[in-house]
């Protein structure tokens, strides 16, 4: 006879996995607009804790509400981040196959810069679930910078894992369909949850 508690645990995990994949699908559809990519990522990050905790239903409706909020406030900065990311990738690819001493200098600048940008992006995602609705790009950037400075090693580890995943996805493009939004979101969620747990311990002490 199956253990009821184990069955319930399995069903709960399947429910979480189904909700996450549903949000990933919605993210993919909306992201085709390019301008909508980062607002969609911000909305996914805001809804992700509820999908994992299963505390609040109607996740898709909340996703679109958060997407509307993010689109109004961050669409231009999101497009700038997209364009800047493409320029960084192009620059690194160009200099990686170049020759001469300038190649070393250029890569020594571009690779740490790309790591810093990814670290700030993960940090920004990590603080998004708790960000107030009146947040602006300036306040999010300040909070993300504070988060990054306070947890440089965990964020650096997240950047390494994220780059490894992108390297795998470049060889297996199907991974992008199941994780292009979820992998960064889950990485940032883990970073943010650790910070919240430590804050809770400080308060209890």
UniProtKB/TrEMBL annotation:
InterPro entries: DUF624. It holds the Pfam family DUF624. The keyword Transmembrane applies. The chain crosses the membrane at residues 20-44, 74-98, 104-128, 148-168, 174-192. Keywords: Membrane, Transmembrane, Transmembrane helix. This is DUF624 domain-containing protein. It comes from Kribbella hippodromi.
């Amino acid at each position: 006879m199956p253990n009821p508690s184990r069955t319930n645990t399995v069903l709960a995990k399947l429910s979480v996995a189904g909700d996450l994949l549903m949000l990933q699908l919605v993210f993919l559809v909306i992201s085709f607009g390019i301008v909508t990519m980062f607002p969609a990522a911000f909305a996914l990050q805001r809804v992700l804790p509820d999908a994992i905790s299963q505390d609040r239903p109607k996740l898709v409706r909340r996703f679109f509400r958060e997407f509307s909020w993010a689109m109004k406030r961050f669409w231009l900065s999101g497009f700038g981040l997209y364009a800047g990311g493409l320029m960084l990738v192009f620059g690194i690819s160009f200099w990686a196959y170049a020759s001469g001493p300038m190649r070393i200098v250029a890569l020594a600048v571009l690779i740490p810069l790309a790591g810093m940008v990814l670290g700030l992006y993960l940090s920004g995602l990590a603080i998004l679930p708790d960000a107030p609705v009146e947040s602006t790009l300036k306040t999010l950037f300040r909070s993300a910078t504070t988060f990054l400075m306070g947890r440089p090693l965990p964020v650096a580890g997240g950047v390494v894992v994220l780059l490894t995943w992108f390297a795998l996805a470049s060889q297996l493009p199907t991974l992008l369909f199941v994780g292009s939004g979820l992998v960064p979101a889950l990485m940032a969620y883990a970073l943010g949850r650790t910070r919240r747990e430590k804050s809770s311990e400080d308060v209890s002490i």
